[in-house]
Write a structure and sequence with these properties.
The complex is a heterodimer of chains A (about 250) and B (about 600).
Chain A (H helix, E strand, L loop, with lengths): L4 E8 L8 E8 L6 H10 L27 E4 L2 E4 L12 E4 L6 E3 L2 E2 L2 H9 L20 H11 L6 H4 L13 H12 L7 H7 L14 H5 L6 H21 L2
Parallel strand pairs in A: 1-5
Antiparallel strand pairs in A: 1-2, 3-4, 3-5, 6-7
Helix pairs in contact in A: 5-8
Chain B lengths: L5 E4 L3 H12 L4 E5 L15 E2 L11 H11 L6 H20 L14 E2 L9 E2 L5 H18 L3 E5 L1 E8 L5 E8 L4 E6 L2 E4 L20 H8 L4 E2 L4 E8 L6 E2 L3 H4 L3 E6 L2 E3 L1 H5 L9 H14 L10 E4 L5 H19 L8 E10 L2 E2 L13 E3 L17 H22 L6 H20 L7 H15 L6 H18 L13 H25 L17 H4 L1 E6 L6 E6 L22 H4 L1
Parallel strand pairs in B: 1-2, 1-10, 2-6, 10-19
Antiparallel strand pairs in B: 3-5, 4-5, 7-8, 8-9, 11-18, 11-20, 12-13, 12-17, 14-15, 14-16, 16-17, 20-21
Helix pairs in contact in B: 1-4, 1-10, 2-3, 3-10, 5-14, 12-13, 12-14, 13-14
The chains are: A alpha+beta (about 250), B alpha+beta (about 600).
Chain lengths: ~250, ~600
């Protein structure tokens, strides 16, 4: 019997400015393989299916347990993490592509800095006075804590933005990732000190009003964060803020 | 603003906390990380953080926490730093809570706590089973505040190469590489903090990420920094073996009541409960691991004849499991395909943590190179011969409180370098030369295959059970592999994010560090904590109650020893079959 193999088709790009091209690979199969171990196998032997010598495919990874968000890519047309994509559960050839909403650095590596920059714009933090000893934090109801813990699991992976029809490479829309963080920090008893600032930062261009309600984000989120609920909640908060601003004019 | 700047290498928990403390003390920080800091390996920590908050009114105290830590570490931890860490712990948990970390709560809305290994008191605060991730996020957010205010400059996608050190053995900067352009640059620094975590990737498959190469610590070692207690590598008892890495199944599974068993004579055998009645499933990791190893390897009682035993939570309330252990339930389901709420999980030990690391001063976390500090897993403080679960997150944060202010104090006092530019030029040239060499490599050796060979040898000989003859063979093998490194051929000559070239550089350093760990183990002829030699089955306080120090030399690591601070708790025999006798009382401390 021929040795069992895994076939992959990978969209490659040498640098930010060059054109993409496709390469196919065929590697030995092993039990409990995931897309990461396929990419490692290509590193060990960077030769295409037709026997041409090539270079290893560049990709990002860190935790390999789907808690860091690094290895996000498009696998068989669906954006997800490569670590939790098990070979036994997906069709072959396994087609790998870089995310399309962020600039490509090389091969499957994209630059997602925009997401981190947006966290700055909405002041996604709790404004504590400092790290010195000031006694316990605010009491929280376990039921409310559980809801907001879900929001806090956002890995900044960008799946929600990849599938969003409104989020484009060169526009200002911040997208579900940021809006959900606004909800998280507005909820926190101390974080709420910056609530008005945060709402103002998602009020104008690129803000929550630009959401087209396609609801793709909530489907794509690997952590099952209730993103559409967050968008609705922040939308409501923004509306109230607009009225408040108007009355205080 | 002053022209003094502190460079922090690594954006995991220790790096971020150190950055916050430096900013609070008024100096600017250059934070260097080859991954966006939110993707650092600290996200993999699951179970929680220890602090004697006595949330359940059972008389817990920082002293009890300290005693558990020292006893659990088989008395090799320096007691001064360990005690200070345990004393600071409640304050640290409150700080994280104030920063918005979503810790689980009691019905009253107070912090909930759970049990962990090597302790009789419940003192582990937690956020589901993703406490490390939540903690990274909380600190990342605070660092982003300082970044927005212009006090922190992040160098993301930059890879540390080497220190810039002058002839007074004082650090003056670092050489880093922009990985996207493969261009080497120098960053001047008044002080440098290394916070780059552990070296698990040396072993190939471990619970660590691929990024945990130990490369930065090794570079510092090769430049003269001392490496302490390298032989003490923690093997976590419960991981799921995988094709790329082994995935941790947190000790908190047992903290929440999980039971370990296998079949013996056709019936379930709860081996930890039977062998260690006082602590049961919550014995420290070194002991649980040796027991599982013995059951599978020596007694052949692994499940279906394989190297696996059960970690069972299937009898627990599924809603409670989701609330308290959701993160690991999800990992097991996604990566194994079975539902741990319904069937017991199958696990086996895996390389997890390094108790050893860069030698640092007990008061300041400064290494033996002036102005060079080490914080978090990368240093050797606090854990002795075996780390207790949920003490690692604590030590990362506590180190930030020690290192940050100490580095600022040093930076405010040190005189500037006499001729920085020439010095920087010299070290930049050295790093450039190394990469020229790597880019020109056209030999027959395959770097990945060399790594696999090293990993296999290290996993077989430098984990749970160690024999001197096998360690000697291992050292020879590592020398051979290091020589064969020169004959690697590389396929990728690109100047854009060339991961192969970077990996080849890191592989050389992993081989150097593997040798440090091995030689350190070879010299320690006793059994203590995670270091177990059947030829020397007992702890030998007379000869080995001391810290191993490895120093670089022409002929490999040179070993010397340093006294351990045992001024507060007198070493006593370690026996988890019976209740820990609190032989020390707080009174003796005063």
């Amino acid at each position: 019997m021929a040795e069992k193999t895994v076939r992959l088709k990978i969209k490659r790009q040498l640098n930010a400015d060059s054109s993409p091209f496709w390469e196919e690979f065929e590697i030995p199969y092993g039990p409990s393989m995931n897309v990461i171990s396929c990419l490692v196998a290509i590193q060990e032997n960077p030769v295409t299916r037709s026997g041409k010598k090539t270079t290893a495919v560049a990709w990002e990874c860190s935790c390999l347990e789907e808690v860091c968000g690094a290895c996000t890519m498009i696998i068989n047309g669906k954006v997800r993490q490569a670590c939790s994509a098990l070979v036994d559960n997906i069709d072959q050839p396994i087609v790998l592509e870089p995310m399309t909403k962020f600039p490509v650095v090389r091969d499957l590596v994209v630059d997602r800095q925009r997401m981190f920059d947006n966290l700055k714009k909405v002041q996604a933090w709790v404004p504590v006075d400092g790290s010195f000893d000031m006694g316990p934090g605010p009491k929280l109801k376990e039921s409310e804590r559980a809801v907001h813990y879900e929001l806090s699991k956002c890995m900044t992976c960008g799946c929600c933005l990849e599938v969003c029809p409104q989020f484009e490479k060169d526009n200002d829309f911040m997208g579900a990732q940021i809006i959900s963080q606004v909800r998280l920090f507005n909820f926190h008893p101390t974080g709420a000190a910056l609530k008005e600032d945060r709402l103002h930062s998602v009020m104008g261009k690129g803000g929550v009003a630009e959401c087209g309600n396609a609801q793709n984000c909530v489907e794509a989120c690997p952590k099952e964060i209730p993103l559409t609920t967050s968008i609705a909640e922040v939308g409501r908060q923004v509306t109230l803020q607009v009225m408040k601003d108007w009355f205080l004019k | 603003m002053s022209d003094k700047r502190i460079v922090v290498i690594g954006g995991g928990l220790a790096g971020l906390m150190t950055t916050i403390r430096i900013c609070e003390e008024g100096l600017p920080v250059d934070l260097v990380s080859f991954v966006p800091v939110k993707r650092s390996h600290s996200v993999c920590a699951q179970g929680g953080i220890n602090a004697a908050l006595d949330m359940q009114g059972k008389g817990d105290s920082p002293w009890e926490h300290f005693d558990d830590t020292v006893y659990g570490g088989d008395f090799l931890a320096n007691q001064g730093p360990a005690k200070r860490m345990c004393e600071k712990a409640p304050e640290i948990v409150h700080m994280l809570d104030r920063m918005g970390l979503m810790f689980n709560r009691t019905p009253e809305g107070q912090l909930d706590v759970r049990a962990f290994g090597g302790a009789k008191q419940k003192r582990t605060a937690f956020a589901g089973a993703t406490t490390g991730q939540q903690m990274i996020y909380a600190l990342d957010e605070q660092v982003r505040r300082f970044e927005a205010a212009g006090q922190v400059k992040k160098w993301i996608g930059y890879d540390f190469q080497e220190l810039i050190v002058d002839d007074t053995k004082t650090v003056r900067g670092v050489v880093v590489m922009n990985m996207n352009t493969m261009k080497l640059e120098t960053l001047p620094a008044t002080a440098v903090v290394i916070a780059t975590g552990g070296p698990g990737y040396i072993y190939g498959k471990s619970t660590n990420s691929f990024i945990n190469t130990g490369s930065v610590a090794t570079a510092c070692y090769l430049q003269g920094a001392k490496y302490a207690n390298g032989e003490f590598i923690q093997i976590h008892p419960t991981a799921i073996p995988g094709s790329d890495k082994d995935r941790l199944m947190s000790e908190s599974a047992r903290g929440e009541g999980g039971r370990m068993w296998t079949y013996k004579d056709g019936k379930p055998w709860y081996f930890l409960e039977e062998m260690f009645p006082a602590y049961g499933n919550l014995v420290p990791r070194d002991i649980a691991t040796r027991t599982i190893y013995d059951i599978c390897i020596n007694q052949g009682l692994g499940l279906d004849g394989e190297n696996k035993v059960f970690l069972d939570l299937s009898f627990k309330d599924p809603d409670e499991l989701d609330r308290k252990l959701g993160g690991i339930m999800e990992i097991y389901e996604k990566f194994v395909g079975d539902d741990p709420r319904k069937v017991p999980m199958k696990v086996f030990p895996s390389v997890h943590y390094s108790m050893g690391g860069m030698w640092v001063d007990a008061e300041t976390d400064m290494t033996n190179i002036n102005g060079l500090y080490a914080a978090g897993e990368v240093n050797y403080q606090y854990h002795g011969a075996n780390r207790l679960g949920a003490n690692s997150l604590l030590s990362c944060i506590y180190d930030g409180f020690v290192t940050g202010p100490a580095a600022v104090k040093y930076a405010n006092e040190v005189k500037p370098a006499s001729d920085y530019d020439a010095l920087a030029e010299k070290f930049l040239g050295q790093s450039e030369k190394l990469f020229e060499q790597i880019y020109a490599m056209d030999g027959d050796e395959n770097a990945r295959k060399l790594h696999q060979e090293m990993a296999k040898w290290m996993t077989e000989r430098m984990t749970v059970v160690r024999h001197n003859d096998k360690l000697e063979e291992l050292e020879k093998k590592l020398v051979e592999l290091r020589e064969r490194w020169n004959h690697i051929g590389i396929a990728d000559h690109s100047k854009v994010l060339n991961q192969e070239a970077i990996y080849v550089k890191d592989l050389q350093r992993m081989m150097e560090l593997a040798r440090v760990l091995t030689v350190s183990a070879l010299h320690r002829n006793e059994s203590r904590g995670a270091h177990y030699k059947p030829e020397f089955p007992n702890r030998d306080d007379e000869n080995f109650l001391k810290t191993t120090i490895a120093t670089v030399s022409e002929d490999g690591p040179k070993i010397s020893y340093e006294e351990v601070d045992t001024s507060l708790i007198k070493p006593r025999a370690r026996n988890y079959a019976v209740d820990k006798h609190a032989t020390e009382t707080e009174g003796e401390d005063k």
